[in-house]
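Protocol step 4 of 6.
Sequence for Ocs element-binding factor 1 (Musa troglodytarum) entered exactly as in the expression construct, tag removed. Do not edit the line below.
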Amino acid sequence: MTSNRESARRSRMRKQKHLDDLTAQLNQLRKENSQIMTSLTLITHHYFAVEADNSVLRTQLVELSSRLQSLDEILQCLNGNNPISNGLSVTALRSLIASAIHATSLT
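Step 5 output, structure tokens:
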């Protein structure tokens, strides 16, 4: 009888140790999960901030491309020496220059 009791006691101890190990593992996994969720939240916020910055930069790219095109047109007119003979009136040239000046003053 003593050996059965001792065997049963060892079995209960093994089960308790296994339960304790599982509980410790559960706590460790919960801790890791919490850290991962915190990291994910931070990364998500960073992603949205970068996405907003990219949107601003894309808008600025469109604006600057338009300005560059206007300035290139002005340079082409000025290099042609005679904007009227190139099919561009003095009024149109003045308008181009004014819009380029206005566009550069917006920045």
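Step 6, annotate. The chain has a mean pLDDT of 85.
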